[in-house]
Design brief:
4-stranded antiparallel beta sheet, 431 residues, 12 helices, alpha+beta, Immunoglobulin-like, 31% strand
């Protein structure tokens, strides 16, 4: 090993304070390489960033880019993708100072594509594409169109969107043509693994019933089978091993009449090579046209740092309202006597779970039971679950005998189906 990296770092700082920026930058560069050899990544990155600052002061743009690229590679070595992304974005001001247009075009594309990779493995693919679109304005249009790195991003985007295995195979075959360094190439392979995982995964949504009423809970299971991933994870192409797989959260979109009643605790550790059921409980609140569950967004994490979101399409559910039934009863409030009126109570109760709409009640008395006061017909807009309709009539028996009082109820269920209920009550008048 060469000189002590700490001594090199201290010397670089002294040179910087003495405004010998070019020499300081070189010393920081050497210190960073020495720290890197010792696998002291924290001090290595610090050395490269300090060296870049020194060359900025010396107005030497090309060495700045060299050191920033090294600093980003150290971040990649420690799986600090956001740290690497931040360094890549720092290069943009420096690139604008380069004299040759080809150098500017090449570096704008290189560093923005690497930033896109970092955002991709952090589950922020769309943000990465937006960043590339902004950088496109800085690059000659023909150069941009012909760049193999831009074609690479296009291929990755289409393969990811369409789950297209042929395109991802093409990327794998061409991987050595992109002029990337070792750690950058490994970053690209991680992007490829995420896309391959989404192609091979086929989580299924299962409901415990084919039809539900609005008073029933919906058991929803996502069967997360990772068996198709085992072969992919063992592929030597990747140069790294997948040891953990977690589902960090699940976001379920649903129609307005549904709510999430119970969900599992996250994160959930996924057993590789097995089916992993993830269970949810949903509660319906009211009926509506075409209720749905989904899309379902499953946030997955490989090796604690590679993030992707798997989306399952929406499914419609067959949801009906529970059929209402009404309980009908009458009650003498005083013993009936011939020639004397007495109060009679009519009671309609909804003890079911369904709502009865447009309720019409008609009470029919025999000839020798005369209604002296009160109405024999009632109508209300609705009778909800656990509600009741009650009123009194004054009735006068004319002759002794055994009679029948008939109560007829007509109403509609929530789906506007007509329902008829009739109940007869024997009624005796004694001498």
């Amino acid at each position: 090993m060469g000189k002590d990296p700490e001594e090199q770092f201290l010397k670089a700082q002294q040179l910087f304070r003495a405004h010998q920026f070019k020499k300081s930058g070189k010393k920081f560069h050497n210190a960073g390489m020495s720290f890197l050899e010792l696998e002291d990544y924290l001090h290595a990155k610090s050395s490269f960033l300090n060296g870049a600052n020194a060359f900025i002061e010396a107005q030497k743009d090309e060495p700045v880019l060299v050191l920033l690229r090294l600093a980003s590679e150290v971040s990649l070595l420690t799986d600090d993708y956001i740290g690497a992304n931040n360094v890549y974005k720092q290069t943009m001001e420096i690139i604008s100072n380069l004299k040759k247009s080809d150098d500017r075009n090449y570096n704008y594309i290189l560093f923005s594509v690497l930033a896109y990779f970092c955002l991709f493995v952090n589950g922020r693919q769309n943000e990465g594409l937006d960043y590339l679109k902004r950088m496109q304005k800085k690059v000659d249009s023909n150069y941009f169109k012909e760049s193999n790195l831009i074609q690479l991003v296009t291929d990755l985007t289409v393969a990811h969107r369409d789950k297209n295995q042929k395109i991802i195979d093409k990327v794998r075959n061409d991987i050595n043509s992109y002029r990337l360094r070792e750690e950058e190439l490994l970053l690209l392979k991680k992007v490829i693994l995420i896309i391959q995982s989404q192609i091979r995964l086929e989580p299924r949504v299962e409901l415990d019933k084919k039809e539900y009423t609005t008073n029933e809970l919906i058991n929803l299971t996502i069967n997360f089978d990772t068996s198709p991933l085992i072969k992919e994870f063992e592929d030597s192409f990747y140069d790294f091993t997948v040891t953990t797989f977690e589902v960090s959260k699940v976001l379920i979109e649903m129609s307005d009449n549904l709510s999430l009643n119970k969900k599992p605790n996250f994160p959930i550790e996924i057993s590789l090579g097995e089916n992993n059921p993830i269970n949810f409980l949903l509660k319906p609140h009211f009926q509506m046209d075409k209720p749905f569950i989904g899309p379902i967004h499953i946030s997955c994490v490989l090796n604690n740092n590679l993030i992707f979101i798997y989306e399952i399409d929406a499914v419609e559910i067959n949801l009906t309202s529970p059929l209402p039934t009404l309980d009908i009863s009458i009650k003498n409030l005083r013993p009936p006597l011939i020639g004397q009126s007495f109060p009679l109570e009519v009671l309609i109760e909804n003890k079911s779970d369904g709502e009865a709409l447009d309720v019409k009640v008609e009470v029919e008395f025999p000839e020798f039971l005369k209604v002296m006061r009160g109405t024999v017909e009632k109508q209300i807009y609705s009778l909800r679950s656990n509600e009741e309709l009650k009123w009194e009539l004054n009735v006068k028996p004319i002759e002794a005998g055994d009679y029948i009082i008939e109560v007829r109820v007509k109403f509609k269920d929530p789906d506007q189906n007509d329902i008829d209920q009739v109940k007869q009550f024997p009624f005796s008048i004694k001498l």
